[in-house]
Amino acid sequence: MSGFNESAYQQARDTAIALPCPFERALLSLCATCHKSRKLLLAEREAISCTEAQANAYCQAFHQALHANARFALHMDPLQPWPFGKEIRAQCGGVLGLRDILGLPDSNTGVDIAQLVDTALARHGDIADFPYSEIMRAIVHYEPRKRRGDK
């Protein structure tokens, strides 16, 4: 039996992270970057925190809009929680789709989420006005990278 206490870990995580990053999985999977993020190591796990409240609020709103729009595209039951694979598709596909729609270059270092959202806000005015129908195409077509043992 494991001596690991998940509730103690969650409590320590909540104490250590004042502004949790909604795109943590995208950052940890390396499909995106963010200059406003800070990586933490807690109980041999990696976690991502945001360093700016306004950027976090914009990212939270974009993340919620991605979820609201992607439920149908990914055939999600609204009453079920998001499985890991579909969450990665929503986060990475959403960020990369928005980058492509804005015509930003594909960078070797990955797209910076905070800069991407700022650029999209400057162009579209509001997060609700982002072109979600086009972003959904990118989410549907996004394929997470294969695990090492999978071929």
Structural notes for this entry:
There is one protein chain. The chain is built from six helices and four strands. It is mostly helical and 151 residues long. It starts with 5 loop residues before the first helix and ends in a 10-residue tail after the last helix. The strands form two sheets. Strands 1-4 form a two-stranded parallel ribbon. Strands 2-3 form a two-stranded antiparallel sheet. A hairpin with a 2-residue loop joins strand 2 (37-42) and strand 3. The chain has one domain (6-141). It is 52% helix and 11% strand. It is globular.
* Spatial strand arrangement across the major sheet: 1-4
Euclidean distance between termini CA atoms = 33 Å
Helical residue percent?
40-55%
Uncertain ranges: none
- What is the general shape? globular
Largest sheet: 2 strands, parallel
Radius of gyration: 16 Å
Regarding quaternary structure, what we see is single chain
Beta-strand fraction estimate: 5-15%
Q: How many DSSP E strands?
A: 4
Number of helices: 6
Question: Can you summarize this structure?
Answer:
This protein is mostly helical. The protein has helices at 6-16, 24-28, 53-73, 84-102, 113-124, 132-141; strands at 32-33, 37-42, 45-50, 111-112.
Which properties best describe this structure?
two-stranded parallel ribbon; 151 residues; 6 helices; two-stranded antiparallel ribbon; mainly alpha; 4 strands; single chain
Furnish the topology, listing elements before pairings.
Layout: H1 6-16, H2 24-28, E1 32-33, E2 37-42, E3 45-50, H3 53-73, H4 84-102, E4 111-112, H5 113-124, H6 132-141
Parallel strand pairs: 1-4
Antiparallel strand pairs: 2-3
Helix pairs in contact: 3-5, 3-6, 4-5, 4-6
